[in-house]
Amino acid sequence: MIKDKDLKELIQAGVIDDAIAERVRIYYDENPVDNKRRLNIIFSILGALLIGLGVIQLIAHNWDHFSTFVKVSIAMIPLIIGQAFCGMVLYYPKLSSWRESAASFLVMSLGASISLVSQTYHMDGSLSAFMISWIIPTLPIIYVMRSSMASVLYVIGCGIYVISLEAVEDPLIVLLIYLGLLIPMLPSYVTEIKRDLQGNFSILLQGVMAVIFLVVLFAAYNDLSFVWSGPIFISAFSSIYILGLNSEKASAKNKYSVYRVLGSLGTIMILFVLSSNFYWKEFDKAVGPFVGITYHPGFIGLTIFMAISIILLVRMQKQGVRVRNLSPLVYSPMIYIPLIFLSIYLPIGKFFTNLLLLWIGLFYILEGAKKDIAQLTSYGLLILFIWTQIRLFDMRMDLILKGVIFILLGVAFISANIWLSKAVKGGKS
């Protein structure tokens, strides 16, 4: 809500006239900034989750003293209360602000009821069986309640389910199961993103989906050697980065989306690891001949991520985005497949990884200077700064020489930062 004294100050300064001030006042009266409502939703969700957990703890304390009938009745009570709560929210429009908390409570009640019934009748089962019996009934709640928080809980539940699978050892099968479980909720996800890409729940949902996917990826490829984990995660982070760019709305209004930030930072961090001597020494020991490598689960995973990246880039090209002007991060999956093949016979892996890091750092410096965005310039300088430190520590040379180089590099970076800051302020490219 804009204050009257602010409008008067603008009128006195000649910025706006009385008619414009009145229209501004009317607009804010009809479209108030609903920060209190947003805060109420957050606290109501937290309150619903805490109440659900508290009830479970109180019941568990006296559980052994109840008869079977009482136990089953108690197990159904949270579910009945949750359904009644959701019904009231749907029936009375004035309670719409409670939609997220009602859906969250019902999802938690489902898990509590399932676990209590199974414990009452001493049903043996695994964690994966419990999770799949919990997440499947959660799907209707997502669509009936139109709840983003229910979607978040569903994604977390799917991640726990696939990680707890003991019968499946193939990492690709694990990933396919996880992605298959996400397909039924994708229409709700797309609707939420289109409705409000920068909303709190949209950002939370994007972040949870990206993080849980990476956790599942790590769990699936946990048994693979360190040599394969690096390129796979680079390709995964790069695909996430491209996903953040793959919407016209995201590119225009949400320059620092969750996917973009997470994908960029993740790719850069793993590239730092892969730029070391240690990694490529281990690579020479672990990677087999050319014929066998194409059937390796790690190589198949790389190929899948490369295909995903290419599909997303082609889609962006069709939307009118100039792919060649994008960050070099988008080319990481396409670079590492031929690089692995060539590195079997030629010691070029470390060289091209360092070249890619140099390219990325320079890209952000020049892009920041060209677009007058100081954050991009600083990001590029930070990448080059960390890269040079890693390279110096990785090299064998006299300590005095290293010290002199560090001092010179420090002076160079400070000078470059000052020069680029002046260039950005002056509008130079």
Condensed summary:
This protein has 429 residues and is mostly helical.
Provide keyphrases for this structure:
429 residues; mainly alpha; globular
Q: Mind explaining what this structure looks like?
A:
- This protein has 429 residues and is mainly α.
- The chain is globular, with a radius of gyration of 27 Å.
- The chain is built from 20 helices and no strands.
- Helices cover 79% and strands 0% of the residues.
- Helix 7 runs antiparallel to helix 8, helix 10 (200-220) runs antiparallel to helix 11 (226-245) and helix 13 packs antiparallel against helix 18.
- The chain has helices at 4-12, 18-30, 35-61, 68-91, 99-120, 127-145, 148-164, 171-182, 186-195, 200-220, 226-245, 248-253, 258-274, 277-286, 290-293, 297-318, 332-343, 349-371, 374-394, 399-426.
- The chain starts with a helix and ends with a helix.
- The longest helix is centred in the C-terminal third of the chain and has 28 residues, at 399-426.
